[in-house]
């Protein structure tokens, strides 16, 4: 019986969200940093390939099953970019890495664009072993548009500018439970829970 899974990330926001969402399975989620596992290389151009690389790295280093999330912002006006480069988006424009600078750079680059459609995408990959031939893959996508300025106090990343029309606010304006119910990571985590139940816990 699987009782512990390594999360191939040290991002506290991701850890908190995924811990809350996976809690019903009764599985302990341990961040790789607690086990002394360094970050994996992410050389690929798609979310699924990078998530697979991170999960394999964490499973190999820990000897435990691993789960990895690769997520990013896909902006229609930029042909789907920044995509896998989302975390480092600001550095392309001379700013230090960080959420606030990412938002600042995005708003600057979108100035003058009428098309502000965007989607936050999360791809979760889970492996029983580093060589698991049947990785579990779950994808979530939250579509909306980029707000003209940051609004709201919750969340992280691009949440303050990710406006979801049907919810009437940005992800940062929504209570965490409402965001988790509708977010890209929330969608992917719910699907992953189903897959883990079906494939690993029966």
Automatic annotation (TrEMBL):
User: Gene3D superfamilies this protein is in?
Assistant: 3.90.950.10
Q: Which UniProt keywords apply?
A: Hydrolase, Magnesium, Metal-binding, Nucleotide metabolism, Nucleotide-binding
Binding, substrate:
9-14, 71, 156-159, 179, 184-185
What cofactor does this chain's UniProt record say it requires? Mg(2+)
Q: Which domain of life is it from?
A: Bacteria
- Cofactor binding mode, per the note? Binds 1 Mg(2+) ion per subunit.
Q: Which GO terms describe its biological process?
A: nucleotide metabolic process; purine nucleoside triphosphate catabolic process
Q: What is its EC number?
A: 3.6.1.66
Ligand binding (Mg(2+)): 41, 70
Known catalytic reactions:
XTP + H2O = XMP + diphosphate + H(+); ITP + H2O = IMP + diphosphate + H(+); dITP + H2O = dIMP + diphosphate + H(+)
Active site positions, chain numbering: 70
Tell me which InterPro entries the record gives: dITP/XTP_pyrophosphatase (IPR020922), ITPase-like_fam (IPR029001), RdgB/HAM1 (IPR002637)
Sections of the chain in a coiled coil: none
- Tell me, what is one Gene Ontology molecular-function annotation carried by this entry? nucleotide binding
Signal peptide (from-to): none
Q: Cellular component GO terms, alphabetically?
A: cytosol
Stored HAMAP family: Non_canon_purine_NTPase
Query: What PANTHER family does its record include?
Result: INOSINE TRIPHOSPHATE PYROPHOSPHATASE, INOSINE TRIPHOSPHATE PYROPHOSPHATASE/HAM1 PROTEIN
Identify its protein family: Belongs to the HAM1 NTPase family.
User: What is its quaternary makeup?
Assistant: Homodimer.
Protein task: Pyrophosphatase that catalyzes the hydrolysis of nucleoside triphosphates to their monophosphate derivatives, with a high preference for the non-canonical purine nucleotides XTP (xanthosine triphosphate), dITP (deoxyinosine triphosphate) and ITP. Seems to function as a house-cleaning enzyme that removes non-canonical purine nucleotides from the nucleotide pool, thus preventing their incorporation into DNA/RNA and avoiding chromosomal lesions.
The protein's name:
dITP/XTP pyrophosphatase
Q: What organism is this sequence from?
A: Ramlibacter lithotrophicus
């Amino acid at each position: 019986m699987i009782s512990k899974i390594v999360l191939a990330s040290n991002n506290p926001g991701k850890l908190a969200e995924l811990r809350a969402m996976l809690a019903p399975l009764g599985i302990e989620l341990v961040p790789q940093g607690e086990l002394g596992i360094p970050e994996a290389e992410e050389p690929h151009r798609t979310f699924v390939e990078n998530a697979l690389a991170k999960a394999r790295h964490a499973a190999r280093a820990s000897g435990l099953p691993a789960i990895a999330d690769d997520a990013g912002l896909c902006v229609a006006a930029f042909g789907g970019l920044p995509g896998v480069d989302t975390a480092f988006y600001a550095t392309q424009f001379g700013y230090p890495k960080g959420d606030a600078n990412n938002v600042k750079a995005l708003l600057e680059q979108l100035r003058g664009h009428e098309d502000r459609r965007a989607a936050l995408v999360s791809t979760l990959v889970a492996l029983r072993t580093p060589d698991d031939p049947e990785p579990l893959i779950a994808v979530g996508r939250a579509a909306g548009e980029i707000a003209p300025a940051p609004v709201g106090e919750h969340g992280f990343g691009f949440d303050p500018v990710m406006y979801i029309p049907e919810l009437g606010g940005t992800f940062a304006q929504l209570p965490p439970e409402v965001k988790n119910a509708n977010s890209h990571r929330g969608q992917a985590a719910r699907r992953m829970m189903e897959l883990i139940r079906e494939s690993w816990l029966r």
